[in-house]
Amino acid sequence: MLYYALDGDLTHGAGMTGSLLVRQEMAEENTETVADDAAEGGKKSGKMKLILIIVGVLLIAVIGGVGAMFMLGGSDDEAVSAEVEPAKPAQALYTKIRTLEGSPYFTVAVPSKDDRTHYMQIYVETKSRDDEVVAALTKHMPKIVSNLNRLFSSQSFEEMRAVNGKQMMREAALKEIQIVMQAKIGKPGVEKVLFTGFIMQ
């Protein structure tokens, strides 16, 4: 009896030992599995972090590049427009053309087909943008006045009453003054002739 009991105990003890060994092996396998899973999880999270960092760096680079293009592009456009933009012309200078007697207007008799004597009174100013031209106009005023007197006296009453009569005479006066300026200072100088007053009777 005792033998069997002992044998049973032994058998039972051996069964317990075997059961403990099996459980220990299972626990070790579970530990290894958990460790492997943890290692794989660590690897996955490490890869994920790396991917996120790379994506973040790329985004920053793209945004920075676009911003730089806009900034540099804008400054280039401004520089180009500054280069292309023409220089502003100098301020306009107006000079009154006075007769030799110092009168501010010309008075000339103009012929007409009705055999009556008509008179034309004209106030003349020139427009230029150069102090040298203004000085030359003043210096060579006698020559300019003489040429303009001849021009105005050659007009007929009928021509002056025409719609474009005054315009044509203004252009002719500009040409006369530019000829004098070209001969005296080497450039036409005067941009425009203005009739600031015009009376005909």
Characterize the structure shown.
The chain is α+β, with helices and mostly antiparallel strands and 201 residues long. It has two domains: 1-85; 93-200, 2-Layer Sandwich (Tetrahydropterin Synthase, Chain A). It has five helices and four strands, in the order αβββααααβ. It has helices at 2-84, 131-139, 141-153, 157-161, 165-185, and strands at 93-97, 106-110, 118-128, 192-200. Strands 1, 2, 3 and 4 form a four-stranded antiparallel beta sheet that branches. It is rod-shaped, with a radius of gyration of 54 Å.
List the helices and strands and how they pair.
Layout: H1 2-84, E1 93-97, E2 106-110, E3 118-128, H2 131-139, H3 141-153, H4 157-161, H5 165-185, E4 192-200
Antiparallel strand pairs: 1-3, 2-3, 3-4
Give me a quick take on this structure.
It contains 5 helices and 4 strands; from the N terminus they run H-E-E-E-H-H-H-H-E.
Low-confidence stretches: 1-22
Structural class: alpha+beta
In round numbers, the mean pLDDT is 77
Per DSSP, the total helix count is 5
Largest sheet data = 4 strands, antiparallel
Shape: rod-shaped
The CATH top-level class label of the largest domain:
Alpha Beta
End-to-end Cα distance: 166 Å
- Known CATH architecture of the largest domain: 2-Layer Sandwich
How much beta, percentage-wise?
5-15%
How is the quaternary structure best described? single chain
* CA-based gyration radius: 54 Å
Give, in order, the helices and strands: HEEEHHHHE
What descriptive keywords fit this protein?
rod-shaped, Tetrahydropterin Synthase, Chain A, single chain, 201 residues, 5 helices, 2 domains, alpha+beta, disordered N terminus
